[in-house]
Structure formats: structure tokens, C-alpha cells
Amino acid sequence: MKTLLFDIDGTLIATNDAGTHALSRAMRVAFDITVPNMDVKFGGRTDSSLFRELLSLNGLQPSHDNFETLCKAYKTQLPASLACCGGTVLPGVPDLLEKLTMQDGVKCCVMTGNLHATATMKLEHFGLSDYFEQIFGGDFDEDRRHLARRARLFLHGKHVQGSKDAARQQQTIVVIGDTPADINCALDINAICLAVCTGHFSHQSLELAGAHAVFKNLNDVTQVVDWLLRQ
Ligand SMILES: [Mg+2]
Fold first, then answer.
1. What separation in Å is there between the alpha carbon of 120 and the centre of ligand 1?
2. How does pLDDT run across 104-116, given as a tens digit for each residue?
3. Neighbour-count burial of 12, counting CB atoms closer than 10 A to its CB (0-12 exposed, 13-18 middle, 19+ buried)
């Protein structure tokens, strides 16, 4: 069995900063902050980590209650932000997912720093949700490597359970993402990593981070499918 773990932002879609827009509105509504300080790095982070930093940056305790309040407000704001920011599905993605989901022994999942609920909203908004069997979201783990370990544990458990002869079958995990954080978490769980330059990172920086392959984008569907199936 081969499990493909796709990142969302910068890999499958570009949202034109809909997430930042929604998060800024959520900070205003939930905590009555007129102009929230949004000066945090977004790429490759989990929302669990990002939201806590944002709370601190705006003079709020990064407590469980404040985190939950912000999550709730963000989930409320995101649909309108997705609608107004006019993002797009990245080149080749629907065709690629269509072809991959037709392959025997290949399972497409999402591993993202987004909260599970907002990952679902994004995939549904861009018409991609039906391609994925499972979403591993960034609700619980501040470190993306911990998210990857949780995903691997889950997949391994499910694989062994569902396999009549687990010893004979191998489970390969491939992470597809656009940031060094995606690559780091893939390497941490001994997974293969395909990096794409459709986010904010250069070919060189993704190569230096240790990706097994770096593609400009996912548009050459035949090349991407061939590469993924060879792993
Ligand atoms: Mg990304």
C-alpha cells in the first residue's frame, strides 16, 4: 500500500491569503482587537502553533480557552474569506488526483497544518474533498513532525489491521508539500518527500532541505504519477 500525504496550501491550492484574512477577522471579533498584529510566519506551520503565537503577539494568554475561542471564530470566518479572496486550484491538481485515485494500492490523504475542520472547508470550497480518504490536521501538534508521527502511527495501525499478511506487504508513505517543514516532517518519519515550488520556497531551498525530488509544479501529471508510483 502506498499512502500519499498531500499538504494543502501552496501544494493543492493558493487561497490568496484567505486564511490570514479570516484569522485577522477572527481576532477582531473574538477578542475585540481593532487592528490585530498578524506579523507571524505562516508557511509550513500548524494552526495549533500559529494561533498560540498570534495570541501571545496580541497580548493574550495562549491558554486552552483562548485557543478554542480563536479556533471557533476562525471556522466561522473562513467560508466568507474563501469566497471573497478568489483563490485557485494549482495547475494539474484535479487531473493528478483523478489519476491517482484510480490506481490500485494507492491512497490519497491530506496532512496539513490547517485545523481538520478548516482543511475540510478549503477542500470542499475548491471541489477537491472527494479525492481524499483521510485528513490529518494541525489541531493538536505545534510541531509538524509530531503531526507526521501521529499520521504514520494511524496509517501503520490501520494497515496492519487491514492486512491478512502484514509481514509481506509494505507501507510506503510519500509526503507532497511546498515548504521545508513538509520535508522535515517527511524525513522524520522516514517517508519519501516530493516538494513543489508552488508556494513561497525556491527549488534550491527545497532541494537543500532534503526533498527526494523537487518539481516546479504538479502540472506534468504523467511525470508526477510516474515518479510517485516508482517510490
Ligand atoms: Mg503548504
1. 15
2. 999 999 999 999 9
3. buried
